[in-house]
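Priority: low. Protein: YrhK-like protein. Input follows.
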Amino acid sequence: MTGESRDLTLDVGRDELVIRRRYETLGIVNDILIGIWFLVGSILFFSDSTTYTGTWLFVIGSVELLIRPIIRLARHVHLRRIRTPMSVRAATGLRSARRVDAEWR
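Result:
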C-alpha cells in the first residue's frame, strides 16, 4: 500500500436507502420472532402437558424461516423496480415509476 486513501463513493438515491432500511428492519423483526418461537417451543418441550403447544411454535418458527428469503426477494424486486428508468418502464409496460430518466444519466 502506498498510504493513499482510496475512498469509495456510491451514488444511491434516498428512496433506495429508505427501502433498504425498511426491509432490513422487517428482516430483523422476523429473525427475532424466529428466535422467540423456537425458544418458547423448546421450553414447552420440558413438560409433557405442553409438548403439543411447543410443536406448534416450532411449526410457526419454521414458517418464519421460509419468510426470510421472501423478504429478501421482495426487497430485491422493489429495488430493481425503482432502479429501472422511466423510458424502460414505458417500453416494457411496467408501472409506478418513482424516478425520472434524468436521475439515471
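The chain has three helices and no strands. The two ends are 34 Å apart (CA to CA).
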